[in-house]
Write a structure and sequence with these properties.
Mean pLDDT of chain A: 87
Structural class of chain B: alpha/beta
Strand order of the largest sheet of chain B: 6-7-8-4-9-10
Order of helices and strands of chain A: HEHEEEEEEHEEHHEEEHEHEEHE
Oligomer: heterodimer
Mean pLDDT of chain B: 89
Largest sheet of chain B: 6 strands, mixed
Structural class of chain A: alpha/beta
Number of strands of chain B: 10
Shape of chain B: elongated
Strand content of chain A: 15-25%
Number of strands of chain A: 16
Radius of gyration of chain B: 31 Å
Largest interface: A-B, 19 and 21 residues
Low-confidence stretches of chain A: none
Chain lengths: 336, 476
């Protein structure tokens, strides 16, 4: 098998798979990575549910996850009967779900597994630490579709963005949205060292700084949200520790004063394309505390809803829209 | 007696519990539902207090003496749900891992506990037999798998499975499907054997359920004793004395929650001393003079004592009551549609019905203040008189004249009587000024001494509207 994704992810210690939509091909990409990274001690989890034969929502066939012995994986207790590897229980986590506690297993044989790990960012970080303490060289995180902010942890992690035909709108819409996400992931850390330091040190949910990193007062509503109407009428940097939404960017754009929005990393951008465009047209900028690289975009022309696309057309459109490598993980040669 | 959330919150017991942090789930469960030591449990309570005293002395000698123990306690997970199974289903691998983790942790705890001076009547034993059951190869690894040592047939199946999986790695097409089909058959046989092992282990563990739950209880008790000792040291609490007499004696008692709040505002709590004999004791005095705080302090310390804690006083002695009650404005009942008066009457009615012949303690904060003053005073006085004849120690605060006349003892807040008006600093916040000038000490007073008239002075210090104050002065 040709290595398509392995050379693109390099030495990244955490690889997060981010889906543009449901059935975007995240699990297919992950299965390919597992095969390509044969020989490495891998650990994996999912913030959704993966590995089941049929999608519970759409009823469509889904790829199963086959892992080699020695692989570590975190999944809920209730899915253990559906995993056919011989397992050793290595640890239990604090993540509790209706299907039981999320536990960490070591596969003592090759076999199929089903994944449903913790769904909250605060639980992913300690899980990654546990994986590494148990000897994992790399952690693969299968993120849930349309929940980009939950998808990434790790200091030197990278992202594989999975674009699929299940997204409505056809080839042009998929290409445009993929380009939008790649643009957001290309956001940089601030050039100003004082501002970089100020963003690193802030623990607040929202904070306001000058472009030189000096703290500015941020008035609050009774519910704790910033009082947007009273933001200063000069250039400033708004720190958002949670998700950036389209409505927030529209409010900032309406004020007519160019602002920069800074987030921990690009997975925190949750806004639609229209909001991004409007914000940037008004002179706004995006900054990140930590830059995350998109290592590759995968293309899946198969739709769970029956609207399959032409493989060649999709690949060409994506390659024309983004600068990062685009691959078709179902093709042995990557679709070239 | 069962401690309701209401009394825990009204007395400040809930606040004290928040300041205490048992490390294990078993200790936290005991703290949520603390054991009540009634009159029949004098010996057991003395033993519990001995243990807290031992742990406190140990920590006083060496502050890190219990660090290892508390660390091990914090590593326990709650496995009670796995043992409370009614459906007879076998435990899965994760549950068996949790039981093994519990047993390994227990062995460590027993080792750490064995080098400490033993706490009175608190033994911890390692459940080595059960650990051997879950770890047949004796490697004591912190992991769990249904290893071949549990069932000899497993080794052969797994070897075959491994060979097939090796073959699958380089195989595609129809050959692969054949290999997968053979593997599925092996997986079924492996699952069957694993299930038999899990059933056997589950049954063996459930047969020792009493031993396991007893051990969890001992761990919880040890954890709670350590937490009580840390609490006593942090707040300088004292060991209470259990009295044979129906008499409560508190010297230099504080209410920790109020003291904490005052310290945050730069103030200082004035400790109070009280002696309550059988019958009714009445506290009168200025508004904002700390009467209710004294009432809550006594109730809190009694509940702490009867749940095996050291108390917030220089010294404290009391008998063991069947029941300790605090009747104050019950917001919950008022929200449910009862008037504050109705709620008080319902509460005291229930106590008087239930506590016949038993020794009980009841504290009443301005009983009957919500009804018309003439009838209210008469009812409060009647209740004080009636409680004198019951087997109880009762403490009432009141502004009504005549109630203390029938009490067995009477205390008055020193209040603003010695107020030096020159001490009033302009610009000071009214509440801070009041708390600075108020003398919160309780002074033993003859029963027939009239209630002090401090309302006018309190209003003046709180800077009530001057025009209103003028009319108030003329009418007083």
């Amino acid at each position: 098998m040709i290595s398509l994704l392995a050379p693109l992810v390099g030495d990244a210690s955490t690889i997060s798979l981010v889906g543009l939509c449901k059935n975007a091909g995240k699990t297919t990409a992950m299965c390919r990575l597992i095969r390509e990274l044969d020989g490495e001690k891998l650990a994996m989890t999912s913030v959704g549910r993966d590995g089941e034969r049929k999608d519970i929502v759409t009823g469509t066939k889904k790829p199963e996850i086959w892992i080699p012995r020695g692989t570590l994986f975190a999944t809920v207790q209730g899915l253990l009967p559906l995993c056919d590897t011989t397992v050793s229980v290595e640890a239990v986590t604090d993540a509790m779900t209706p299907l039981g506690v999320v536990a960490v297993f070591r596969a003592l044989s090759d076999g199929y597994i089903q994944l449903a790990g913790p769904s909250a960012v605060p639980q992913l970080e300690p899980l990654s630490r546990t994986f590494r303490a148990l000897g994992a060289q790399r952690v693969l995180i299968d993120g849930a579709a349309a929940r980009r902010s939950l998808a990434c942890v790790g200091e030197d992690g990278c992202v594989i963005l999975c674009a699929g035909a299940s997204m409505p709108g056809g080839v042009s819409a998929i290409a445009a949205e993929t380009a939008h996400l790649c643009q957001l992931f290309a956001s940089r850390e601030p050039e100003n060292a004082a501002l970089r330091a100020a963003l690193s040190n802030t623990r607040a949910r929202f904070a306001l700084f000058t472009p030189d990193g000096d703290s500015l007062p941020l008035e609050r509503e009774e519910n704790g949200q910033p009082r947007w109407g009273s933001l200063p009428r000069k250039r400033c940097v708004l720190w958002v520790a949670g998700g950036v939404t389209g409505s927030l960017l529209r409010i900032l754009a309406q004020r007519g004063v160019p602002a920069a929005v800074a987030v921990p990393d690009a997975t925190h951008f949750l806004q639609d394309r229209g909001a991004t465009e409007r914000f940037l047209r008004g002179g706004g900028r995006f900054l990140v505390r930590r830059r995350l690289a998109i290592a590759a975009v995968t293309a899946n022309p198969w739709s769970a809803y029956g609207r399959h696309l032409d493989r060649r057309e999709l690949l060409d459109a994506l390659r024309a829209a983004v600068a990062v490598p685009v691959v078709d993980v179902r093709q042995e040669n990557g679709g070239n | 007696m069962h401690l309701t959330q209401q009394i825990k919150e009204d007395t400040g017991y809930a606040w004290v519990m928040e300041k205490m942090s048992p490390a294990s789930p078993f200790g936290r469960a005991l703290a949520r539902d603390p054991a009540w030591y009634g009159p029949e449990d004098r010996e057991a309570l003395e033993t519990e207090l001995d243990r807290v005293a031992q742990a406190t002395a140990l920590l006083r000698r060496e502050s890190t003496a219990l660090d290892e123990t508390t660390h091990i306690l914090s590593e326990f997970h709650d496995i009670r749900n796995s043992l409370n199974r009614t459906d007879g289903a076998p435990m899965d691998e994760v549950e068996l891992f949790e039981v093994k983790h519990f047993l390994l942790n227990l062995s460590q705890l027993v080792r750490a506990y064995s080098v400490l001076p033993p706490l009175k009547d608190l033994e911890l034993k390692p459940l080595t037999g059960l650990l051997d059951l879950l770890d047949p190869s004796g490697r004591r690894l912190p992991t769990f798998s249904v290893e071949p040592a549990f069932a000899p047939g497993l080794a052969r199946i797994r070897e075959e499975k491994t060979e097939l999986e090796q073959a699958l790695r380089g195989c595609a097409g129809a050959g692969r499907e054949q290999l997968l089909a053979r593997r599925r058959d092996l997986v079924r046989r492996e699952d069957k054997l694993e299930l038999e092992v899990r059933c056997r282990l589950t049954q063996a563990l459930l047969e020792e359920k009493d031993e396991l739950t007893g051990t969890m209880d001992s761990i919880g008790r040890l954890d709670l004793i350590v937490a009580k000792a840390f609490l006593a040291l942090r707040f300088g609490c004292a060991r209470p004395e259990l009295s044979e007499m129906p008499e409560v004696r508190a010297v230099e008692m504080v209410h920790p929650q109020v003291a904490d709040h005052l310290e945050e505002r730069g103030g200082h709590f004035t400790p109070v001393s009280l002696c309550l004999r059988r019958g009714t004791c009445v506290i009168t005095g200025a508004n904002m003079g700390g009467k209710s705080v004294s009432l809550r302090s006594i109730s809190l310390n009694l509940i702490l004592m009867q749940t095996g804690f050291f108390v917030f006083a220089q010294s404290f002695s009391a008998p063991l009551f069947e029941e300790v009650s605090l009747i104050c404005t019950d917001r919950q009942s008022v929200e449910q549609g009862l008037s504050s008066f109705g709620a008080e009457v319902a509460a005291i009615g229930e106590i008087l019905r239930e506590e016949r012949e038993k020794l009980f303690f009841v504290a009443l904060d301005e009983f009957a203040r919500g009804t018309n003053p003439r009838e209210g005073a008469s009812l409060a006085r009647s209740l004080a008189e009636y409680l004198n004849g019951r087997n109880c120690v009762a403490l009432m605060t009141t502004h009504y004249d005549g109630v203390s006349d029938v009490a067995v003892s009477h205390y008055q807040v020193a209040g603003l009587s010695a107020l030096d008006t020159a001490a009033i600093k302009p610009g000071e916040a009214p509440l801070d000024r009041l708390s600075r000038l108020m003398d919160y000490r309780l002074i033993p007073t003859p029963p027939d001494a009239p209630c002090p008239r401090d309302a006018l002075r309190v209003c003046r210090l709180m800077e009530l509207e001057p025009e209103l104050m003028k009319i108030f002065s003329e009418n007083s």
